[in-house]
Automatic annotation (TrEMBL):
<feature type="transmembrane region" description="Helical">
    <location>
        <begin position="223"/>
        <end position="243"/>
    </location>
</feature>
<dbReference type="InterPro" id="IPR005467">
    <property type="entry name" value="His_kinase_dom"/>
</dbReference>
<dbReference type="InterPro" id="IPR036890">
    <property type="entry name" value="HATPase_C_sf"/>
</dbReference>
<dbReference type="InterPro" id="IPR003594">
    <property type="entry name" value="HATPase_dom"/>
</dbReference>
<feature type="region of interest" description="Disordered">
    <location>
        <begin position="564"/>
        <end position="585"/>
    </location>
</feature>
<feature type="transmembrane region" description="Helical">
    <location>
        <begin position="48"/>
        <end position="70"/>
    </location>
</feature>
<keyword id="KW-1003">Cell membrane</keyword>
<keyword id="KW-0812">Transmembrane</keyword>
<keyword id="KW-1133">Transmembrane helix</keyword>
<dbReference type="InterPro" id="IPR003660">
    <property type="entry name" value="HAMP_dom"/>
</dbReference>
<dbReference type="Pfam" id="PF00672">
    <property type="entry name" value="HAMP"/>
</dbReference>
<feature type="domain" description="HAMP">
    <location>
        <begin position="245"/>
        <end position="297"/>
    </location>
</feature>
<dbReference type="InterPro" id="IPR047669">
    <property type="entry name" value="MtrAB_MtrB"/>
</dbReference>
<keyword id="KW-0418">Kinase</keyword>
<dbReference type="InterPro" id="IPR036097">
    <property type="entry name" value="HisK_dim/P_sf"/>
</dbReference>
<keyword id="KW-0597">Phosphoprotein</keyword>
<dbReference type="InterPro" id="IPR004358">
    <property type="entry name" value="Sig_transdc_His_kin-like_C"/>
</dbReference>
């Protein structure tokens, strides 16, 4: 019979998440968010950068000066104390030498009493009786005959280092700074020693002067310097913030005004205060905005007049065109009875009138788009029959120029909420354009669908497009080769109208092409009217396209530009990559 591990077994503990690890992750996440927020503030705020740099630079400079000043004050106080104690040591050594000069042997009975009196005198000679100065006379060479005497009484041996004793023994006046406890708390002492020559040899005189007063003075000086430095840094920061604000505020106002101008509020202006450089900037900005407003209004008026002129001319030409059409139809119907040259002229007249009528129709449609009067009549539509109708209508042209049309359509209906008339017109323009430039090679029409969008691609294998032409093809009256004879008698407005139809649906119409590899157009429409497109069910770059650099066709996005084999689109990724050469929404 198997048994489960106890609640606190090692395996259970290993599986249980560590509380410390969770706390660490929470703290690290919070720190990362704070750092990211600070980095964002640093990048976006000029004032923050200027104030921060000013504070850091001023802190370093003031800190360096404060350190130098505090060190100088401490050095001056210590040098003053050394000079004073040195004079007292030299004077005390001279007095002591006179007092013990009468003794020839260290064993004489009166010598110890003389040393005691001398120490007491030298200690009593201190002008500040409570200063804590300790005077000591030692004789290390005669330790058995002469005892160490101090006034006031204290054990000075720990504060007199061997190095200092050796220097005094060599006949030098020397000093050290030592910390120890003599008469109370642990105190820093300046220990000064001097040899005292006698008839029987040499003894040592030591002054142990506390540096408490100097330390307090130096500490007060350092505190004063630090407080002054902090106050100076804060004042410099406030000054930098004030000055930066005076400069940044007009820049921010100019940025907000520029944003309003770019949003179409052409009457926005900056307030001009004073006559300084910032006021000159505001005045120049206002003058620029006024000139831009005047120019934009003039261009809008010209564009409105041009659109109205096009619309009026198109409507006015309808009546004479109808009359000419009636006469031309009559002549065309009787052409068999005319001379062959006249009959051929009747045929040419009929063809050109058809093209003229199509041109007028396209101009009227363009004028409706320009005026914003184009309306979308969306309804659930099966796109498979739409594609078949377009192919059937262009089958005669395709057979005449020797371009077979191939279809790759789903076996089930593809339903989308679209305007069937406009979609059919777009496909008719795309397929007609592909047939015209197909160079007797097959044209492939592919229909794809996913949950949010439908797409139709029209692929030809003709001469293709040169670099940059994938965007120019949608311009009005643009032709890749002006000397090329049209097979369909087009007006030059088909792709422009198709692009507007795609935009009216909220969709995309895009182009790809490469010299010698043909071209492909992709129409992507939302499956439900009003939805926003994010991806396309079909890829823009064909699977059989030769990509530059030998890269994989199913990899990530790859920018293809001049000098890279001539491909003209940005979309070698799989369907749904969202990269477009021409955005129609």
């Amino acid at each position: 019979m198997s048994t489960s591990p106890p609640p606190h077994s090692p395996s259970t503990a290993a599986r249980r998440p560590s509380a410390g690890g969770e706390v660490w992750r929470a703290v690290s996440g919070r720190v990362a968010r704070v750092v990211a927020r600070m980095h964002q503030t640093w990048r976006r705020s000029l004032q923050v950068r200027v104030v921060t740099i000013t504070l850091v630079a001023s802190s370093l400079l003031v800190g360096g000066f404060a350190f130098l000043i505090a060190d100088k004050i401490t050095t001056i106080l210590l040098d003053s104390a050394r000079s004073d104690v040195r004079q007292r040591v030299i004077s005390g050594a001279s007095y002591t030498a006179k007092q013990v000069s009468l003794y020839g042997q260290p064993q004489e009975a009166q010598l110890q009493e003389t040393i005691d009196g001398t120490v007491n005198y030298l200690a009593g000679g201190d002008p500040q009786q409570t200063s804590g100065v300790v005077v000591a006379i030692t004789a290390d060479g005669y330790a058995h005959d002469i005892q160490t005497r101090t006034a006031p009484s204290a054990n000075v041996q720990p504060l007199i280092s061997p190095e200092l004793r050796a220097a005094i023994a060599d006949g030098k006046v020397a000093s050290q700074i030592r910390t120890g406890r003599l008469t109370g708390d642990s105190t820093k002492y300046l220990v000064y020693g001097s040899p005292v020559p006698t008839q029987f040899g040499q003894i040592e005189l030591y002054y142990l002067v506390p540096l408490t007063r100097q330390d307090v003075t130096a500490g007060d000086a350092r505190a004063t310097v630090v407080a002054t430095g902090v106050a100076l840094v804060i004042l410099l920061g406030l000054l930098a913030a004030l000055v930066t604000r005076l400069v940044v505020n007009p820049v921010r106002v100019a940025a907000r005004t520029a944003q309003r101008l770019s949003a179409g509020l052409l009457d926005q202006r900056m307030v001009v205060n004073g006559e300084d450089d910032l006021a000159l900037l505001a005045a120049s900005f206002n003058q620029m905005a006024t000139n831009l407003q005047r120019q934009i209004l003039r261009l809008e008026e010209m564009s409105r007049l041009q659109r109205r002129f096009t619309s009026d001319v198109s409507h006015e030409l309808r009546t004479p065109l109808t009359t000419v059409r009636m006469a031309a139809d009559l002549i065309f119907a009787e052409r068999d009875e005319f001379d062959p040259a006249v009959a051929r002229s009747a045929e040419l007249l009929q063809a050109e009138l058809d093209r003229f009528e199509e041109l007028l129709t396209d101009l009227l449609e363009i004028s409706r788009f320009d005026a914003g009067f184009a309306m979308l009549d969306s309804e659930p539509t099966d796109l498979v029959p739409v594609v078949h109708r377009v192919v059937d209508r262009l089958a005669g042209l395709a057979e005449r120029v020797g371009v077979p049309i191939e279809l790759d359509l789903p076996g089930t209906p593809v339903i989308a909420e679209v305007d069937p008339r406009r979609v059919e017109r777009v496909l008719r323009n795309l397929v007609g354009n592909a047939v015209e430039h197909g160079e007797a090679r097959p044209v492939l029409i592919t229909l794809g669908v996913d949950e949010t969008a439908v797409a139709i691609t029209v692929r030809d294998r003709g001469v293709g497009l040169k670099v940059g032409e994938e965007k120019l093809v949608f311009n009005r009256f643009w032709r890749a080769d002006p000397s090329r004879a049209r097979q369909t008698g087009g007006t030059g407005l088909g792709l422009s109208i198709s692009l507007e139809d795609a935009r009216l649906h909220g969709g995309w119409l895009e182009a790809w092409g490469a010299p010698g590899q043909g071209a492909q157009f992709r129409l992507t429409l939302p499956a439900r009217a009003g939805d926003r497109l994010t991806t396309s069910p079909l890829r823009l770059v064909p699977a059989d396209a030769a990509l530059p650099f030998g890269g994989p066709r199913d990899g990530g996005p790859l920018a293809i530009g001049p000098g890279s084999g001539g491909a003209l689109a940005i979309d070698p990724a799989p369907a749904g990559d969202g990269h477009r050469a021409e955005v129609g929404s």
